[in-house]
Amino acid sequence: ALFYVHTCKDKDCKLLPDNTEHIFKNISTHYFDKSFETFPAPPKDNSTSKTTPFTPDYIIFKPNQQYIATFNKTIPLYTLNELAIKADQKFDEINNSETNSKQTAFYFYSYLKVYLNTTTKNDSISDLELNKALEKIITSTINPHILAHIILYFHIQS
Fold first, then answer.
1. pTM of the prediction?
2. Contacts 24+ apart (CB under 8 A), 89-95
3. What's the pLDDT tens digit per position in 73-85?
């Protein structure tokens, strides 16, 4: 059909109605319209699945909580991973779905982000620039791991 559209020069062609000009645009429109008659779109499915979001309880990183967020005592990555797995399981329970590694990774990085942001608030350096934050923390410790965590936090934020 496409070959015909490009090569047909027959003035007596009955493909189009008599009152329609026999040009490429009209012929291609004819075939386009016919394609919808031959291959109609499937009926729209109105039963779209909806998921119920699950927001973990990040209060666990506040002072006097189970996992207080501070640069003086870092949280092990496996703890964040365990929290992420539990959050994913809760999401799956709410939505009657299966565990998904991408969803678990999403919760892991959500916990990590909130942990780092809460850490700067708990250590009162959230409004400081890197140099001022380091000066403030250095007065209480010279632990290179703590300083590295602070530098990493500011690097991630920029």
1. 0.64
2. 90/54, 90/56, 91/53, 91/54, 94/52, 94/54, 95/51, 95/52, 95/54
3. 888 999 999 999 9
